[in-house]
C-alpha cells in the first residue's frame, strides 16, 4: 500500500542549499519512495542550542511503500552519508531529515514518534509543510495544518530563500 509521507529537511553547515538538494535527491533514490513535491526553502534562526549558524529548512512530500520504520532508517542512512554528527542535542548539522507524517500512522517508541512531536510548535517545520499540504488534517488533533500554522506567531522567524529542484 502506498502512503503519503512528509519529511523535513534542514542544514546549517557548509553549503546548506547543496546539502538540502542532495538530501532531496537521495530521498528520491530510495527504493519505494517517489518525491511528489518540495516546499520553498526558508532561512531560520536555530532553536534550542542557539550558538550556531542559521538553518535552511524545507519539506518534501513523498509517496512511499515503505513502512514508517523502514523510511526512518532510510532517512538516517542518508544523513550518515552526508556526515551528520550528533554531538550536541539540536546542534549544528550538515543534513537533518525528520519524518513528520506517514499517512495517518501514529507511533510512540524510543526510535520513532509519529506525528513528529514538536512539529506543531515550530515555524521552521510548519511553514514549509504548509507550502505542500495546508489542508491536511493532523492525525492527532484533526485540525488542518494550515490552521495550526496560523496559530503560531511566525513573524520575523522565517525568510524565504528560494526553492529546491525536484529530482528527475
Description:
- With 168 residues, this protein is an alpha+beta fold.
- It has one domain: 2-Layer Sandwich (Alpha-Beta Plaits).
- 27% of the residues lie in helices and 28% in strands.
- The protein has helices at residues 16-29, 68-81, 123-132, 145-151; strands spanning 3-11, 33-38, 40-44, 55-64, 96-102, 107-108, 113-114, 158-163.
- Strands 1, 2, 3, 4, 5 and 8 form a six-stranded antiparallel beta sheet that branches. Strands 6-7 form a two-stranded antiparallel sheet.
- A hairpin with a 4-residue loop joins strand 6 and strand 7 (113-114).
- The radius of gyration is 15 Å and the shape is globular.
What are its keywords?
168 residues; alpha+beta; single chain
Q: Helicity range of the residues?
A: 25-40%
CATH superfamily: 7,8-Dihydro-6-hydroxymethylpterin-pyrophosphokinase HPPK
Catalogue the unreliable spans: none
The counted number of beta strands is: 8
Summarize model confidence as the mean pLDDT: 91
Give, in order, the helices and strands. Answer: EHEEEHEEEHHE
Provide the number of structural domains. Answer: 1
Determine the CATH topology: Alpha-Beta Plaits
What is the molecular shape?
globular
- Amount of beta strand: 25-35%
Number of helix segments?
4
- Backbone CA Rg: 15 Å
The major β-sheet equals:
6 strands, antiparallel
